Amino acid sequence: MPDDPHGPEGKRMLTFQKTDKEDVVRFAPFFAEQMTHVSDFSLCFQFMWHKHFTPDYAIVEDCLVLKEVYAGKDWFHYPLSRTGDEAAERRAVALIEEYCRDREIRLHFTNVARKNVPWLVLRYGQDVSVTNIRRWRDYLYEAESFRTYAGGKYSGQRNHVNKFRKQYPDWRFDVCRPEDEGALIAFLREYDAVQRAKGSYLADEEMDEVYELVPKIGRFGLLCGLLRVGGKIVACSIGERCGDMVVVHVEKALRGYDGAYPMVAQQFALAFTGGDVKYLNRMDDAGDMGLRKSKLQYLPCEVVGKYNITPRRAIDGVAHLPVLETPRLKLSPVRDEDADVYARLASDTERNRWWGYDWHEDAPGDAPQAGWFLTFARSLFREKMELPLGIYADGALAGEVVLHRFGYHAEAEIGVRLLPEAEGNGYAAEAVSAVCEYAFSKLELERVEAKHFHENARSGRTLSLAGMRRTGEDETYVYYEKTPKM
Known about the structure:
Blueprint: H1 28-32, H2 43-48, H3 50-53, E1 56-60, E2 63-70, E3 73-77, E4 80-81, H4 86-103, E5 109-112, H5 117-124, E6 128-131, E7 138-142, H6 143-148, H7 155-167, E8 171-175, H8 181-195, H9 201-213, E9 223-229, E10 232-242, E11 245-253, H10 260-272, E12 279-281, H11 289-297, E13 302-304, E14 307-311, E15 324-325, E16 329-332, H12 339-347, H13 370-382, E17 386-393, E18 396-404, E19 411-418, H14 427-441, E20 447-453, H15 457-465, E21 469-473, E22 477-482
Parallel strand pairs: 3-5, 11-12, 19-20
Antiparallel strand pairs: 1-2, 2-3, 2-4, 5-14, 6-14, 7-12, 7-13, 8-9, 9-10, 10-11, 15-16, 16-17, 17-18, 18-19, 20-22, 21-22
């Protein structure tokens, strides 16, 4: 695994790498000791459902961070420490936030264990969305219940097992060995012949993945048990040790062998749980009501939530750009009739090198229509990526001031640029000061940040005049900030 990457000045940074199906084995050290009770953090889950999620991964603070794209959005799995270090996981959360802010990616967490939800809600305040979709919750059982089927509540399962034992006295349960692979595949094909007739796309897809999984049993260190009658495999179960639980990923039984399912479930628990393995995770029901009923009949001790957390930023609640006035300026949305002037401001490559953005990255060709620049700026506001305001002096467009890089702790960055003929009048500092006041009073930000290239000392004087305080520097930039108390 790669070492934790670092950026300038030793700052830790997230660097994601692509994965393919075979790569999931490198996640084993994190999954083996995980105590979230979430089945998604397992080798088999990542292997079998890889094509649906295809996560990228990063290792930072000795935590695994998975990032997937679902429904057009980036979703970050809650960081998973190799050693269960919650402080390290929280440091990784901060790095995810910075990663999203730097790349203007909306932050969405998924697979957040219940114990981490209160901390995240407190971290982001009341303006946060929390969901916990029922069909994806895992069913967690006490392993002892499966080993014994004791008490009246398990009388049905116990009766089925007793019937199976009586009807098939030559049954036996074996731990799968490498030489059993051919017989296991033959069993799966017999089971599959009936399964495919049901016409369930999801079930068919799962069977395809099971065939691919069988040759990986040894490499992944999986737990596999075979229930035989007269030497023939009639049921199988494949699972994986994750912390204090075993996740049961595959459980199949042939029709016509009554009681085979509760029998193989019990024998699997007897073979692979006990000691410090306290739980069986039998995964979710995917919204299948028949499967849900069956899983509930085994009396889970917990239906494990997989929480999604989406914090909102200050800009997310802004429906319309504001209009601000200072003694000399009016800060407002750029007017349609000023599209040509705005294009001159936005396309001045030489001057805009201090802006830190090259418009060619987004423009449709090297010479877009003048109106494209204003249309693009408006689209950035609609997408809640930045809050741009034109600087008007005596009714004429003089420049632009922008709040952008909105973060998740009531912070944003400010930038300002002027047309050549508007410079030297103090407009930039006046505009920055006014927007900071708006940011603190209306957007309820706690910090406005700014930076400039070392070579552009003039911007530093502007920021200082606007009441911003210098906070540091690196090889490229000098950094400033302003807070409500300044």
